[in-house]
Design a protein that fits this description.
- The complex is a heterodimer of chains A (790) and B (220).
- Chain A is an alpha/beta fold and 790 residues long.
- Chain A is built from 22 helices and 25 strands.
- Chain A is 49% helix and 19% strand.
- In chain B, helix 1 runs antiparallel to helix 3.
- In chain B, a hairpin with a 2-residue loop joins strand 3 and strand 4.
- Chain B is mainly α and 220 residues long.
- The chains are: A alpha/beta (790), B mainly alpha (220).
- At the A-B interface, helix 2 of A face helix 1 of B.
């Protein structure tokens, strides 16, 4: 190939190239990347905060690399590891804390796990439902040294939002509701919060920590009283049921209110215990009950173990309330009292300030010294009735005259023992009951039985053959008598009698002239009064009746039939006596005696006997008056009669009857004697005197007076009957009233029965309302927290 | 296309072409007389650039796979998904198709690109068993596919802008998306830095070491 073009040789210049030309500029890019990577690594290492360790009892929901540590709801760290402590008793959470926050996490830091919590008090930590739990931390704003390990709290602390304040302890009185996390309200403003309520160490009360936030903590002094501020109060009292809707707002918020009731309270130190009362009234009243310093506790042991003394019963000294009963226990101490009887041991809390001691010395020691001195002088404790209706008791300290020497036993455990004396308990129900028991105890049925038995015997006696023979014998006796009267001597009797009568008439006339009748009336009046007194004296009769009943029972067993036989025989003998000549001569003797009598009466008239008789009647009236006064002593008399009857009851009546029969036999024999035949003569003389007296009496208007007396007595009896017929109605009325009162009182006891139920129900409603309220508040503040937390 | 016979290259003919305006100049000309562009028969620093971009791309690819690509927030729960984790989760739920697409687009293709670029760069220096034509095809494929490598980043950007339902659900790009994007960019730069003419150059110009190795067997 001749025409082949030979291309010129390219000049090859071996150029020495610089390092910049030999190395590409692009290498800078990897270098820059490397530098950036190193820088980032260095920076992240530099900004890494320290790791703290928190020991939790329970770390459920805490996940490594996910669970955050938050301070005021801002994440300031994240959990790196979840392990256990050396002994496996706690969960150890290692948290990487942000570098700029770490210096503030020092000794006072508190940590707790925030979990969702739905309770009656409200809903908390709703956001953690979706995002998972987180650890909330709380520390102050001053840097400090962090300890090696923190102890996590099981519950959120009170001042969780970092507000400072005064920490106190609230103690519930009775069944006040200390609800956790409830607000403490002062005049409608939320100034504090209640912590978790727990039973106190001694198990008697419920206590809860509470915080009063600054600056409201200066409202608290020792004179401050707390009470449960229900949204509405419910009262069941004597004036009916009352519902007080004071504030619907507090119904939603619930919680506790307080007020400094009196001025002059001292400074409150953290941890001071305050009581929470059920309502404002109780809280205010407590100021006066408890403002007297520490109480002096005494124990009083009462021998009679009666119901009615309760806790809070008053303790009075001379009518002034000086304390209250704080506990009532039964006490059995055979070594101390020598028997196994249950005694009542009451603990009395005495307020030294109420004893009248000088204000500077109102200490329990001074009060004890004072009471010790008083006890030496006779101060004793006793139970007295505080209320008749309820039967409630109180303890009274009073000076007892002539008390047995006793000392205040200062060595008593747990409290000094104050000596006691007999109780004075006016038990109205016991008294009424005793009355009814006595009436009940009257042996009315026995008496009736005895009376029935006696009547049976009488009827048997009357139906007896012996008694039927009596009329026949009597008829014979009368026949003889008729013969006797038909005799001449007897015929002459009327003439003598009329003469005698004439004399008597004259005598009576004189008597009338001397106003004997008037005086007799006075005497009757006196007797009337005496009878009234006697009525009063009849009170003891029931017992007497019992006795008489016994006597009647004895009498019932007597051999009456035999006695009747004897009487029969006696009558027959008498018959024989009358049939004798001597008897027939008796009219003659009677005539003679009448003659004598006539003469005697004439003498009497001549000697102004009537005047004497008038004086005698005056004397009788006086005597009656005396009797009237002396009847006052009749109850004793009746008692004596009672005793006599009792004796009679024990007498050997059967033997007596036998003796009587013998006596009758003797009488029978006696009648058969001549002396007996002389008897009719004397008898007729006596009869004459008797008739004369009877006539006088009739003329004196005695019967009329007696009628009047009986009329008055009947009127009185009618009145009493009317009154007593009203009495059952009255008693029923009183009973009904008492029953109603008792019902009312039972219902009124607000801590029991319907009152308690109502109060509880209302409290439940209130809590439910509080829960709804807090939920609605939370939602109102942050509605979308329902979905995605804060 | 099969090249038959011997081809006289411009380089063999002592000519050099401007890469901007394609004017042919005699060899040795430093700048193009028409457009002023610096001209060289071969970019001497090409391989250096390839390797530099390649290294940065690979380095960026590591965090792109380790860090979460997608931050999904559903009802307050935050879920961070890496690329492989997300694909595995999809496979777990039975979405095999989608999982395979993600794996192919986000793992196999980037890694394949790295491998191809590295292989091409090495083959230029040390020669290869593969034909020059095939290597050219591979290079074209890498160049072509490079623009699609951003599909992952596009998906993340789309999701992040579309799924913003407030509290119910929200999707945010994770840090890996940035690294992934950077990795793709650097890989593309690496591929572009490669001077494909070197594939066709005779093996003799490649390296001094090679030449030295070949000299005893090929006297000339």
């Amino acid at each position: 190939m001749s025409d082949q073009i030979i291309p010129p040789q390219l000049p090859v210049e071996p150029v020495r190239q610089s390092i910049l030309e030999r190395v590409s500029i692009v290498w800078i890019i990897p270098l820059i990347a490397l530098l950036i990577a190193l820088g980032v690594a260095w920076q992240s290492y530099q900004s890494r905060g320290p790791v703290i360790e928190i020991a939790f009892e329970n770390a459920s929901g805490v996940v490594a690399n996910e669970t955050e540590l938050r301070y005021r709801d801002v994440a300031v760290g994240v959990v790196e590891r979840v392990t256990f402590t050396e002994s496996l008793d706690k969960v150890l959470v290692r948290v990487r804390v942000d570098r700029d926050v770490a210096p503030y996490v020092d000794e006072d830091a508190q940590f707790w796990v925030v979990r969702p919590k739905i309770s009656t008090e409200g809903i908390e930590g709703l956001d953690t439902v979706l995002t998972g739990v987180f650890i909330e931390g709380l520390w102050n704003t001053k840097p400090g040294n962090a300890p090696a390990r923190f102890d996590g709290l099981s519950e959120a602390p009170l001042s969780r939002d970092g507000r400072d304040g005064l920490r106190i302890v609230l103690r519930a009185v009775d069944d006040t509701g200390l609800t956790e996390n409830a607000p403490i309200v002062y005049r409608g403003i939320d100034v504090g919060r209640i912590g978790r309520a727990q039973v106190s160490a001694d198990g008697t009360t419920v206590e809860a920590e509470a915080i009063i936030f600054k600056p409201h903590d200066r409202l608290i002094s020792t004179a401050t009283r707390f009470w449960e501020s229900s949204g509405f109060t419910f009262n069941l009292g004597p004036s009916g049921a009352e519902i007080d809707f004071s504030s619907l707002a507090s119904l939603i918020s619930g919680g506790i209110s307080f007020s400094t009731v009196v001025s002059g309270g001292g400074v409150v130190t953290p941890g001071t215990v305050f009581s929470v009362y059920t309502d404002e009234g109780a809280a205010r009243a407590s100021v006066f009950a408890e403002g007297d310093g520490a109480p002096l506790n005494l124990t009083a042991v009462f021998a009679d173990n009666v119901a009615g003394l309760t806790v809070d019963s008053p303790v009075d000294l001379g009518g002034v309330r000086v304390g209250r009963v704080t506990s009532v226990n039964g006490l059995v101490d055979p070594e101390r009292f020598g028997d196994r009887q249950v005694r009542l041991a009451a603990t009395l809390a005495i307020r030294p300030g109420r004893l009248g001691l000088p204000s500077g010395e109102a200490s329990p020691e001074a009060a004890l010294e004072f009471l010790d001195k008083q006890v030496r002088d006779g101060l004793r404790a006793r139970l007295v009735t505080a209320s008749i209706l309820t039967g409630g008791l109180k303890v009274e300290l009073l000076m007892v005259e002539d008390a047995e020497p006793a000392l205040l036993d200062q060595t008593g455990s747990p409290n000094p023992v104050v000596p006691t004396t007999e109780s004075e308990i006016a038990d109205v129900s016991a008294t009424a009951e005793g009355l009814f028991e006595r009436i009940n105890a009257l042996p009315i049925e026995d008496l009736m039985n005895a009376a029935i038995g006696a009547l049976d015997n009488v009827s048997r006696f009357v139906a007896g053959d012996d008694l039927r023979k009596v009329p026949g014998d009597l008829r014979a006796l009368l026949g003889d008598a008729r013969g006797l009267i038909g005799s001449e001597a007897a015929q002459a009797l009327p003439g003598q009698l009329s003469a005698t009568t004439e004399e008597l008439r004259l005598l009576v006339t004189r008597l009338n002239e001397d106003q004997a009748a008037t005086r007799l009336l006075a005497a009757v009046d006196a007797v009337n009064a005496a009878a009234a007194s006697a009525t009063a004296a009849v009170a003891g009769v029931p017992a007497l009746v019992t006795r008489l009943e016994a006597v009647a029972a004895k009498a019932q067993s007597l051999p009456l039939n035999e006695l009747v036989d004897e009487v029969n025989a006696l009558a027959r003998n008498a018959n024989a006596v009358i049939g004798t000549e001597a008897a027939k001569a008796m009219p003659g003797a009677v005539t003679d005696s009448l003659n004598n009598l006539t003469a005697f009466l004439s003498d009497l008239r001549d000697r102004n006997v009537a005047g004497s008789a008038a004086e005698a009647l005056v004397a009788v009236r006086d005597a009656a008056a005396d009797l009237s006064t002396s009847v006052a002593g009749v109850p004793e008399l009746i008692k004596k009669i009672d005793a006599v009857a009792a004796k009679a009851e024990t007498l050997p009546l059967n033997e007596l009857a036998a003796d009587l029969a013998k006596l009758l036999e003797s009488a029978d024999a006696l009648i058969g004697t001549d002396a007996a035949r002389q008897l009719p003569v004397d008898l007729s003389a006596a009869l004459a005197s008797l008739r004369q007296v009877l006539d006088d009496l009739r003329d004196g208007g005695l019967i009329e007076n007696a009628n009047q007396t009986f009329a008055s007595a009947r009127d009185a009896a009618d009145s009493i009957a009317a009154a007593s017929s009203d009495l059952p109605a009255l008693i029923r009325r009183a009973q009904a009233v008492l029953g109603q009162a008792s019902d009312v009182l039972r219902g009124y006891d607000a801590s029991k029965g319907i009152g308690k139920d109502a109060a509880q129900a209302l409290r439940e409603v209130e809590r439910a309302a509080a829960a709804v309220g807090s939920l609605s508040r939370a939602l109102e503040r942050n509605p979308n927290s329902l979905l995605f937390g804060r | 296309m099969e090249i038959t016979g011997t081809v006289t290259t411009a380089r063999a003919a002592g000519l050099i072409a401007c890469r901007r305006c394609t004017t042919v100049w005699p060899a040795g000309t430093a700048t193009c007389g028409r457009c002023g562009h610096a001209i060289a028969s071969r970019d001497q620093l090409s391989l250096q650039k390839v390797w530099a971009w390649w290294i940065v791309g690979v380095v960026c690819y590591v965090p792109a796979n380790v860090l979460p690509m997608l931050q999904t927030r559903t009802l307050g729960m935050v879920e961070n998904n890496t690329i492989i984790g997300g694909a595995a989760q999809l496979a777990d739920h039975g979405n095999w198709g989608v999982a395979i697409v993600i794996l192919v687009a986000s793992v196999m293709i980037p890694i394949g690109k790295f491998a191809v670029i590295a292989a091409l760069a090495i083959s230029v220096r040390h020669g290869s068993g593969m034909s020059q034509l095939r290597r050219q095809h591979l290079f074209e494929l890498v160049e072509y596919i490079g623009r699609w490598s951003m599909i992952d980043v596009f998906v993340v950007a789309l999701l992040s802008s579309l799924v913003q339902l407030g509290a119910l659900a929200a999707v945010a790009p994770g840090p890996a998306s940035l690294y992934f994007a950077m990795s793709v960019v650097f890989t593309m730069l690496s591929a572009q830095s490669f001077d494909s003419r070197m594939i066709w150059d005779p093996d003799t110009i490649v390296s001094r070491a090679d030449r030295l190795r070949r000299l005893p067997g090929q006297p000339g």
